[in-house]
Amino acid sequence: MAARIAQTTGAAHTAILGLGVYRPTRIVTNDEVAGPIDSSDEWIRTRSGIKTRRFAGESETIHSMSVGAARGALESAGIAAEQVDCVIVATSTHLLLTPAAAPQIATELGMNAPAAFDVSAGCAGFCHALAMASDLVRVGTANHVLVVGVEKLTNTINPTDRSTAFLFADGAGAVVVGPAEQQGIGPVVWGSDGTQSHAIRQDKDWMEFFAEIDEKGLDAVRPYMRMEGTAVFRWAAHSLEKVCRDAVDRAGLSTDDLDAMIPHQANGRIIEIMARVLELPEHCALANDIEEAGNTSAASVPLAMEALLRNGESKPGDTALLIAFGAGLSYAAQVVTLPDWR
Ligand SMILES: CC(C)(COP(=O)(O)OP(=O)(O)OC[C@H]1O[C@@H](n2cnc3c(N)ncnc32)[C@H](O)[C@@H]1OP(=O)(O)O)[C@@H](O)C(=O)NCCC(=O)NCCS
């Protein structure tokens, strides 16, 4: 008979204990991005809801932005770096296949050899990582998990590409997940549709690029991120209502119980459509950080959460629906209690 292997038990309940963000210092107007794509401030505002976004400078890296956001999250949670025993970094723009960004970020934060790894689930990465963090604490694999969503999309976007150049931007958001007296992170509803993997993608893989260099030398064109905007828009606007409703249902709540909805800041029109089809109650705040942050992919949900709390539209203890979606295509949604935030 096989030897009996012991199993751990963790916290009965988990919650987001703290939140921090890093917004790059340089604010970029629509006029600045409009030139190379023959667009205009008016077109960008009406089609995407974006007024300004932030582009990271050279010294604002995946690592430095993550560390900045994480320090804020640890401080607001009142948790010391050494208490964190797992770090999950959600990103699609750490441009090194190996090693992952998380171990170095953990070291820079002064952590004591935690488990540390990256998650690649496009714009849905933060909500995937949050779900994993909560489950790790509940089964006792970890006590405190730092979850970071970070992107430097300006490194992957062609500034002359009309469907991406005005949309994507840079930033980082982080939360600490740990034990709590009552459940503050609902069950995740997540999934993917690989038949749509072409809709948001890197346009050539590295081997294709190296072959192109061999063939064309300096005329080789580097890989860029591409998006079939209309296909993504249709999918997001019409397929995600059920995901949102299932997440609320699995949390044992109804949409009337929601104080806030914090969707991935993909496009202002998608956010509006989602809120409308869900028939959110009047008192429910709707995150609209895209106006000032653009689409920051895996960073957008924690950044939007911080904006709602900072501008007073939401308060700690409020019940919020998170939903994120993007490359894969992939999606994840859960209901959370908003953290104490200073
Ligand atoms: C990118 C997006 C804003 C484009 O809007 P759209 O309404 O689908 O635009 P279309 O590509 O159908 O083009 C409509 C018109 O605008 C023009 N256009 C396209 N991009 C433009 C730009 N950047 N500036 C000005 N005009 C533009 C097109 O040429 C077209 O003109 P025409 O009607 O004279 O032919 C929209 O598809 C979108 O936001 N999709 C979802 C993206 C998303 O959320 N991605 C994130 C998922 S993580």
List the strand order in the largest sheet: 1-7-6-4-5
Structural class computed from helices and strand pairing: alpha/beta
Work out the number of β strands: 14
Fold-level CATH name of the largest domain: Peroxisomal Thiolase, Chain A, domain 1
| Overall pLDDT score | 96
**What does the main sheet amount to?**
5 strands, mixed
Flag low-confidence runs: none
Distance between the termini: 55 Å
How do the helices and strands follow one another from N- to C-terminus? Answer: EEHHEHEHEHEEEEHEHEHEHHEE
Number of helices: 10
| Beta-strand content bin | 15-25%
Q: Give the overall shape.
A: globular
Q: Which percent range fits the helix content?
A: 25-40%
CATH superfamily of the largest domain: Thiolase/Chalcone synthase
Number of domains: 2
What compounds are bound to the protein? coenzyme A
Given this structure, which CATH class of the largest domain is correct?
Alpha Beta
- Work out the radius of gyration: 20 Å
